[in-house]
Each structure stands twice: as C-alpha cells, then as structure tokens.
Input
Amino acid sequence: MKINGSVALVTGANRGLGKAFTEALLARGAAKVYATARDAASITDPRVVPLQLDVTDPASVAAAAKQAGDVQLLINNAGIATGAGILDSDEELRREMETNYYGPVRMSREFAPILAANGGGAVVNVLSALSWLALPNTAGYSASKSAAWAATNALRLALHGQGTLVTGVHIGYIDTDMAAHVDGPKIAAADVVAQVLDGVEAGQPEVLADDVARQVKSGLSGDLRQLYPAVA
Output
C-alpha cells in the first residue's frame, strides 16, 4: 500500500518510536494520522488526531475503532518492559502480556473489518529481537513479544483473504526512553520507521531493522548454546 494519501493509526504515539511513526507518516503525505495514548492530552502535535486509547482495555479498543472507521494502516506500537524475570511475581508478567500480546491482538481484531472495508490496507506489529531470545531481566518481555510474533504469523494468514498486509518488525535496542538504561548499540527511531514504512509500501511481511535482529534470527537455526553461552 502507499503511505501518501493514506489514513493511519499509531498506538503509543506520544513518545519514542510511536512519535517517530507519526512524524514520518505525515512527512510521507499521510492524509490523516490518529495518534493514540492512554492520555490523549499528552499528544500536542496539531497535525494529528489525538485519540484516547488503552490497549489493555477491550472497551477502550472498541471505542477507538468506532471513532476511526477510515483507517487503512494500523501500527501496533504500544509496549512496555518491566524488567520482570521468569521467577518474579505474576503481576508484572501479566502486565507485559496484556500490553505487548493482547494489545495488538485486540487492536487487530477490532480493526480487521475496518481495514477490509477500506481496501485491505496493512497492519504493522512492532515486535523485537527478544521475540526469539530471552535474557535474565527480559523474561516477561520476551515471552510477550514471542507470543505477539506467533499471533502476527497467524494474523497474516487470517487476513490474507481480505487483502491486508501484515508486517512484523524485529529490532534490537532503539534509542528511546525505554532503552535509556542499556549500554550498547542502539538504532535511531527514525531509521527503524523508515525501514518499516518502506517495507509496507513494498509489501514485505517482515522487517529486520538492525544487525541484532538479523543475527539473532540467523542464530535460531544453529546450536542453542551459541545463543545462550552462559549455559553451554
């Protein structure tokens, strides 16, 4: 699909990668961008349509779909990382699953008929290289993103018949507030967004946005101990 002239909705659009998505969509000529956040007042760009949305609340998701019936491109970007380990309390693990897995699933379910009515369009699910790899302090995040990856693959098949492209995006660390505590290579949010929007226009089902994502995916076909040398 073409970005120019399209109508897009971005979840988690008030900062970080979501804000970069809204800015790039406008720069590429999108006719309308719904920028969503739990607190719509935190979105101050006069060029976008602010929309209150909590992806963990089914009623909020349904209300957003009723208000944005002209959407052609859905970007499921909203996500959280609590740092929960696999042996930590259920509360943090459930928070990540609710946001990172059920959030895009709910959004896709509500907006699928809207996309169909508007010509098919596309869904972008922002995943992670941690969809394929777990670290001691990313167990909850990795599990939720792995579940979202599986859901993305299933969604691609489910929506193929209505002409909807489903693009999964895998990235290492992005230079945003979420990864501010991380020492190591980070990719600029604008670089990720450019690759994703190029991929949507080219009809790509998957975007591996940096070397980290490419290396981790490649490593899945090898000896597991190469990905987890600490337990070799």
In short: Strands lie at 7-10, 32-37, 49-52, 73-76, 122-126, 165-170, 206-208.
